[in-house]
Specification:
The chain is α+β, with helices and mostly antiparallel strands and 170 residues long. It is 46% helix and 15% strand. It is globular, with a radius of gyration of 17 Å.
Length: 170
């Protein structure tokens, strides 16, 4: 009985530590990327709570790492205003989107309400037709969980699937 209690307690502590680490990383990045978002911003805090509740923190941090690597090593930026997470304060703070939360067209955040988030969360990221395949090849070299979803290359992350879509510009 005591071993089970200890195991459950260790799991609870690990989850709490992971969530606190995510909160710290978001607020630390906020100071660098988005100082205009206040510490007590209701939308950002609601998003952080929903992300922690749905266990999406690892996936979001990995997605930010992937997009940052593509940006730094290949020099390609995904299409602004086309990402599924546009309008999210946390995604903006982590550098996943370039659209500021106040500038979002819908006016509401896709991550603010935990009840509306379906797990696994599908995030669509759009790249220009000219560079999308290079981006996908770069991701395949570094991440083992590449697959296809409805004919589109997709990266499986914890509780999240990132689909790399193409935009054909005329």
């Amino acid at each position: 009985m005591s071993k089970n209690r200890d195991k459950k307690r260790k799991e609870q502590i690990a989850v709490k530590a992971k969530n606190e680490s995510f909160r710290f990383q978001v607020w630390w990045n906020r100071d660098k990327r988005a100082p205009e978002i206040a510490d007590d911003d209701a939308v950002a805090n609601a998003e952080i709570n929903a992300i922690c509740e749905k266990d999406l923190s690892e996936g979001l941090l990995a997605l930010a790492e992937v997009l940052d690597g593509v940006r730094n090593e290949l020099g390609y930026e995904h299409e602004a205003g086309r990402c599924t997470l546009d309008g999210s304060a946390v995604a903006y703070i982590l550098g996943i989107t370039t659209v500021k939360p106040a500038d979002a067209q819908s006016g509401n955040s896709p991550l603010a309400d935990a009840g509306k988030i379906n797990v696994p969360l599908q995030v669509d990221v759009y790249y220009d037709n000219e560079c999308r395949n290079k981006v996908v090849d770069w991701v395949k070299e570094r991440y083992k969980d590449m697959t296809a979803r409805l004919g589109q290359p997709a990266l499986k992350l914890r509780n999240m699937v990132v689909v790399f879509k193409r935009v054909v510009k005329s």
